[in-house]
Amino acid sequence: MRCMVVSSTHPDAASDAAQHPVTALHGIEKTYYKPDGSVAVAALASVDVVIQRGEYLAIMGPSGSGKSTLMNILGCLDRPTAGEYFLDGIDVASMDDETLSRIRGKKIGFVFQAFNLIPQLTLEENIEVPLLYQGIRKPGRRAAAREMLERVDLSDRLDHRPSELSGGQQQRAAIARALVNDPVILFADEPTGNLDSKTGRDILKLFEELHAGGMTIAVVTHDEAISERCERIIRLRDGRIETDERLRPTRPSRRPAGADGDR
């Protein structure tokens, strides 16, 4: 399967995007080389992954399996050595750094195990950061940040700094920051790894609520209990997809394709 490139400047881009999955990787390889040019690690080999709109999937595998490398490529944090990657219908595999960064900021949301909130900023200011990089003016940033914090039940913590919050509150704030740009996909890397069991369940419930609203979510995890809450599990071993199992049908997405437009 091959995906047509969608130009965000074309008047029919939004309708064209409906024909494409959120992500489509074809023949992806990632090789790390030593300074002398010899191969150090062949991290991914001949990986094909298609993620449809509205899917909720887990990416699993033992240490060294390539799952983090796959997440980095899916999240446009790294480039493949070979192969094709289409994100929301756009060919991103060979983009220059500046263009790739712009596309990543518009199309992708990230949630990390360590929260990665800026300690000197208030919660409201933390949520505004992605919008600042997109050139959104202060009134628009403030309104969007407050809307997202209300969505994750933190509207009463606008002026608090991360150190004044519990781990669960910090992770909810991190989720709000990931959503503020209205991404086409949310990537979560071990999102409950630093949380106690109850708080972790609360975060997973929030993911399920977001998924019910149409968000496409991919979670990297070692936890089988987390993966079993997903619709699909991709397991890697030695840089290759070992199994790709669907546990239940994908819930139809309520989010219109191309809704983010040319943000």
What can you tell me about this protein's structure?
The chain is of the alpha/beta class and 263 residues long. It is 31% helix and 24% strand. It has 8 helices and 10 strands. A 6-stranded mixed β-sheet has the order 6-7-8-3-9-10. The chain has a 4-stranded antiparallel β-sheet with strand order 2-1-4-5, covered by helices on one side. β7 (185-189), α7 (197-212) and β8 (217-220) form a beta-alpha-beta unit. The chain is globular, with a radius of gyration of 18 Å. The two termini are 28 Å apart. Residues 1-15 have low confidence and may be disordered.
Biggest sheet strand order reads: 6-7-8-3-9-10
Biggest β-sheet description: 6 strands, mixed
The protein's oligomeric status is: single chain
Structural class: alpha/beta
Strand content: 15-25%
CATH class of the domain at 52-77 and 96-246: Alpha Beta
The CATH H-level homologous superfamily of the domain at 52-77 and 96-246: P-loop containing nucleotide triphosphate hydrolases
> Low-confidence parts lasting 5 or more residues at pLDDT below 50?
1-15
Question: Topology, please?
Answer:
Blueprint: H1 13-17, E1 23-33, E2 39-51, E3 56-60, H2 67-74, E4 82-87, E5 90-91, H3 97-107, E6 108-112, H4 123-133, H5 138-151, H6 167-179, E7 185-189, H7 197-212, E8 217-220, H8 224-227, E9 232-237, E10 240-246
Parallel strand pairs: 3-8, 3-9, 6-7, 7-8
Antiparallel strand pairs: 1-2, 1-4, 4-5, 9-10
Helix pairs in contact: 4-5, 4-6, 5-6, 6-7
